[in-house]
Amino acid sequence: MQGRIVSVGRSPVHGFSKPPCGSITLLAGLGVEGDAHAGEQVKHRSRVAADPTQPNLRQVHLFHAEMLAELAHRGFALAPGDIGENVTTAGLDLLALPRDTLLHLGDGAVLRVTGLRNPCAQLDAFRPGLMRALLDRDAEGRLLRLAGIMAVVLRGGTLCPGDALRAEPPPPPHQPLERV
């Protein structure tokens, strides 16, 4: 399973969007260098409030450009980085990956997929109705979270737009992604 990196971004503050930039550096065990969410322990404010000693399973947020196109058809004009992702990808269905998939990116960086980003009310503050657009139901009525995936950095490296992306699923049995 292969794809490519469309855009990368980071933000040193706990804002909503992550402005695209020419490259980002991933640091093993921490996340994106210079990003407010980098660290061994949780950095998302709601999780820090609950327990600041939790491990940071949300070091890197990935979102696929195909969803940006789908959202555009539904009236949401969004650009890479707008919903806070660090890495925007194309050609790989991120939401279909099993938990613990290894993502090989750029010049040798490796991420381990930890789970789904849970859409939150900040999406509606950014664009009214966006949170609902990133939630759906499957045929059995189960909630589907469509706001991208989260990962931790196993091996650091530099990522740039245009870099390759390859997914290496873990050995079976595969565990589905859940929110983290």
From TrEMBL:
Gene3D superfamilies: PK beta-barrel domain-like. SUPFAM superfamilies: PK beta-barrel domain-like. Residues 19-168 form the MOSC domain. InterPro entries: MoCF_Sase_C, MOSC_domain, Pyrv_Knase-like_insert_dom_sf. This is MOSC domain-containing protein.
